Amino acid sequence: MIRLFLFAIATVVAAPTAALDLTLPEAERLLAERNRELLAARRTVEAAAAQRITAAARPNPIVSLNSSDISTDPGVGPGPLNQKRIDTILRIDQPFERGGKRELRMDAAEGLERAAQHDSLDALRQGLAQLRSAYYELKQSEEKVQVLLENAQLFGRTMAAAQVRLKAGDLAAADVAKVQVDHERAQNDARAAQAEFARARLALGYLIGMEREAESLRAADPWPERIRPEPAAIEQAIEHRPDVVAARARVAAAEKLRDLAKAQRTRDITVGAQYERYPSSVPVDSIGFGISFPLFTGNNFEGEIRRAEVERYAAIDALERTRALAGNDVRRAASDLIAAAERLERYDTTLLAAAERTARAVEFAFERGANSVLEVLDARRTLRAVQLEALAARTDHARALAAWRASQATVEALQPK
User: Fold this and answer.
1) d(CA 276, CA 394)
2) pTM higher than the cut 0.85
3) Are 36 and 209 within 8 A, CB to CB?
4) Rounded CA gap, 353 and 349, in Å?
5) Measured CA distances, 13 to 93, 137, 403 (Å)
């Protein structure tokens, strides 16, 4: 029964291995193509591009047709419609913007479009960090299943050795029961790790738009090498991050909108031309021209200008806040990466190897009756704990490295090649 259980878990874990080995670069490509949050960010860019087209539009002319001097007594006279005694005026009016309003609108719209583009790149930056974390979460879950499966198998051998010693009268039944308890717990841990593995697959599958194939995903890339951040890269990365660049673009756009609000004080003019026909007994045809402009007697656009100025200061404040958050993000990621690398180094160089040697020695001695059950169980628990801690340290380092790379990702690095 025990062998059947372990074989079932091993089959479930190993079966998807050949189904879909996913490398990290391939996962990043799928993220850029299929991730729903990134697609939504691109729609925002498209909307900003449409707004730029709207900002570049010129005022439309207005055509009007009016009839007047329609008499009820003695009437409009006989004959076709164009011979009726009706004064008809055909007029066209064309507004003209002054003060550079159209150019300022276009500049502001282009700035907001650039901000939306950089927001999309920042969404990609954050998505890549989330993807890399999920990728190594999947790798950790898979290896955790393998570690706990091997641990269950080792407990199975310990259980078999305990039963041999029980039959020989060298071990008490109570000690065998203790081994049995740890053996059952090891099986439960392996099954729980399998469920965690399935959840990690689903999380990664959603990020890359492969929910249907999530059950077959496997992280094929090896763990990243230990890396320490370069101090010089910390300050250089801040000003080139897409969120900071987007905030600067919004400041530039707010300045243009402030200038546009001030430009409303420059009067726009409307030029008109008309053709007039009055088919009386002596038909009269005439043309005329006119010009109109507003008088600023009730509104001098003081409120619009003040509001635009406030929004400009708000954009400047947002830029400073974004800079500060970006700096904290980069420095925190660097600190986390250094700590994670040091922790992983200790597991790789001493802790893991020492725990494995100790467990092998105690197991060997127990099979020959030289050690007690408590000693072998303690050594086995210690080995399992160290193995899982080492795996967690490796995962923490991979996540910290992903966060560090995302924190210093620049606009140039995130632009599609």
Assistant:
1) 87
2) no
3) yes
4) 7
5) 77, 15, 29
